[in-house]
């Protein structure tokens, strides 16, 4: 593996070659009363669907080569992040499941809690999500 996270076996037999910035999905996810609004800054042509899941947010990809592994980053825009309908906050986001077809973003209050938060349980909040494919 080289420093661009490319797996290679010599010659031209590269697997999952990832050129920085070539396939970037950058979106702003705003949720109000459990209704998500998505504004794409870049990469809408790589996303087929974004939907609520029992664990959080499921992003389904299109036009992505098989064996591609997504890399993800978050940037809070609203002061608290996502506020739940119970008055708590979804402070912990992580890649729960992923492959070249989809990315399931898990949301929890804390990393050591076993209860996951779905979009349906989010009252409000805004986040920027970047996914490198």
DSSP strand count: 12
Overall shape: it is: globular
Query: What does the radius of gyration come to?
Result: 16 Å
Largest sheet: 6 strands, antiparallel
| Derived structural class | mainly beta
Rounded mean pLDDT is: 83
Number of H/I helices: 0
Percent strand equals over 45%
Order of helices and strands: EEEEEEEEEEEE
**Ends apart, CA distance between termini:** 16 Å
Q: Considering DSSP H and I runs of 4 or more, what fraction of the residues is helical?
A: under 10%
Which residue ranges are poorly predicted, with pLDDT under 50 across at least 5 consecutive positions?
11-15
Tell me what the structure shows.
This protein is 0% helix and 53% strand. By secondary structure, it is mainly beta. The strands form three sheets. Strands 3, 4, 7, 8, 9 and 12 form a six-stranded antiparallel β-sheet that branches. The chain has a four-stranded antiparallel β-sheet with strand order 5-6-11-10, with no helix packed on it. Strands 1-2 form a two-stranded antiparallel sheet. Strand 3 (24-32) and strand 4 (35-42) form a beta hairpin.
Summary?
With 133 residues, this protein is mainly beta.
Features:
4-stranded antiparallel β-sheet, single chain, 133 residues, 6-stranded antiparallel β-sheet
Walk me through the topology:
Blueprint: E1 7-8, E2 14-15, E3 24-32, E4 35-42, E5 47-53, E6 56-61, E7 71-76, E8 82-84, E9 89-90, E10 92-98, E11 102-108, E12 122-132
Antiparallel strand pairs: 1-2, 3-4, 3-12, 5-6, 6-11, 7-12, 8-9, 8-12, 10-11
């Amino acid at each position: 593996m080289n420093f661009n996270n490319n797996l290679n076996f010599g010659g031209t037999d590269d697997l999952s070659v990832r050129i920085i910035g070539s396939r970037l999905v950058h979106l702003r996810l705003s949720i109000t009363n459990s209704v998500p609004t998505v504004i794409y800054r870049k990469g809408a042509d790589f996303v087929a669907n974004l939907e609520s899941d029992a664990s959080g947010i499921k992003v389904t990809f299109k036009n992505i080569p098989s064996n591609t592994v997504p890399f993800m980053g978050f940037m809070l825009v609203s002061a608290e992040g996502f506020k739940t309908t119970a008055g708590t906050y979804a402070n912990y986001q992580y890649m729960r499941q992923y492959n070249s077809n989809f990315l399931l973003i898990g949301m929890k209050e804390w990393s050591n809690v076993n209860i996951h938060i779905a979009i349906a349980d989010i009252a409000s909040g805004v986040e920027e999500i970047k996914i490198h494919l």
